[in-house]
Amino acid sequence: MTAPALPGKNPARASAAAPLEQRRFLRSTAGLAAGVCIVTALAAVSLFVGVGDLSLSSLLSGDPTTRMLFWVSQLPRTLSIILAGMALSVAGLIMQLMARNKFVEPSTVGTVESAQLGILAVTVLLPGASMFLKMSTASVFAAAGTALFLLVLRRIPLRSTLIVPLVGIMLGGVISAVTTFFAYRTDLLQTLNSWMVGDFSGVLRGRYELLWIVGALTVIGYLAADRFTVAGMGADFTTNLGLNYNRVMALGLVIVSLISAVVVVSVGSIPFLGLIVPNLVSLMIGDNVRRAVPWVAVFGAGFVLLCDIIGRTIRYPYEIPVGVVVSAVGSVIFLYLLLRKRGSHA
Amino acid sequence: MICVNGVTKRYSSTVVVDGVSCRIQEGGITSIIGPNGAGKSTLLSMISRLLPMDSGSVTVDGLDVVSTPGRDLAKKMAILRQDNQLTVRLTVRDLVGFGRYPHNGGRPGPGDRTHIETAMAYLDLTALADKFVDELSGGQRQRAFIAMVLAQDTDYLLLDEPLNNLDMKHSVEMMRLLRRLTDDFGKTVVLVIHDINFASCYSDDIIAMCDGRLVHQGPPAEIMRSEVLKDIYEIDIRIEEIEGNRIGVYFA
What we know:
Chain B: It comes from Arthrobacter yangruifuii. Chain A has helices at about 10-50, 55-60, 65-100, 110-125, 130-155, 165-185, 190-195, 210-225, 225-230, 235-240, 245-265, 275-285, 290-315, 320-345. Chain A is an all-alpha fold. In chain B, β9 (about 205-210) and β10 (about 215-220) form a beta hairpin. By secondary structure, chain B is an alpha/beta fold.
């Protein structure tokens, strides 16, 4: 049938909705712009916080040491925080849609643990491996671990909201135990720690550029936004709307695994980030991915910037790794979300 | 026309749908009735390619549902199963808007907006358009899902127990709406339905299933007879004719 539309009872009603939607759009754009301003301000603070004697005036005066410090250490650090914060948050959102559960993210379903196992494998088998080779292996392991989680999920008939994250945490625990065992046997526990706890203090020019890949993956996630929203509605809805469910899942799997692997190789794991940021955004504006991704990205970048600044100043001149700060703040917010959800669905 | 040719589905040794063949004519309401576990929903899922079949084939207007590209089918046929749980937090307008996905690939144009607003108006959802689906009552949510498949604007609409969660007022409104869709716009509606009296009053054709097999097919006048219903449901159902409709009385 080619009839273009069912005639509405009241065509005026249809057009009356337009201004409302427009207002809403303007309001959300204004909110987003405010978010970008806050992130920019935090980024500026982040550039000039640190043990190095770096101030705006000395930078502008053209002092060569300051200038070098800025380009080699401070700027790469701030950029990598923004990239990792955005990407991990968006990866969390995509993971939640794929698992159809709000309480999962790459570090609670075995993705991050698998990536760590991958890095360990390369380090043991090919000690002189390049960053790129480490990253590739970590990605393959991460994808395999995530696929395993999704396969296990398919076999669980009754998926209660809390069973899904529990399965993920158990799976991650098992993989993590294997990693720790082999790290212990090969005397690499110390090294392993640097991939376990996210830390931006080691970021230098020449050692963070892989993170641009996750920036690109975030953009791909945004471009495929509608597919992920549809997949989040379930396999039947996806098929009904003419999409290949398995193909959408595969795309999500690749994006999530690559983002997790690259971040773990570059700066280590930052747990809870992909969990709390999408959940907070969901409370504010819902889960329509096309609308949510910009918010999740901005929020994620801002949150990690803030946590990194806290970690750098709270025990000055020492640093607390950002992974620790994010975990501490994140676990409190996670508990709040869990209890809130229980209350509203009881 | 939907042609079902010898469709079978089995889970290990249990045969759920057993070699069902039938034709569903264009432009009308076809109701699939039968006792629990008769294979009604399974049959509907196979017709709508949500469930792979073990043998047999299904064509919709000549398109084989297994081999035709998903997006082409999505413009021809919409399916809504029962017990839909949405974990994604979407507004009603967004949800209904996704019904347009097969047509616009996620890039809505002005025509899409008309479809969306019309579908919402049809299901009395305009006042709820900006609410999140998880904040609605069960009945409102069911109507939102129906609005979504309506916005999909397909020739064929397949609904698995669409009256689930609806009160009497909304059940009647839903059936009238489906009737209007077939009468005014030539759509073909296929329902799995439990209430034989709704099936009797609103259908053009009834397919009766029992133990995975198709046992009767025909217009309500043929199916709504005590001996036929006894054959399907194994209980005595008295038939009364009220205002030209055949009503089964089985409450006492």
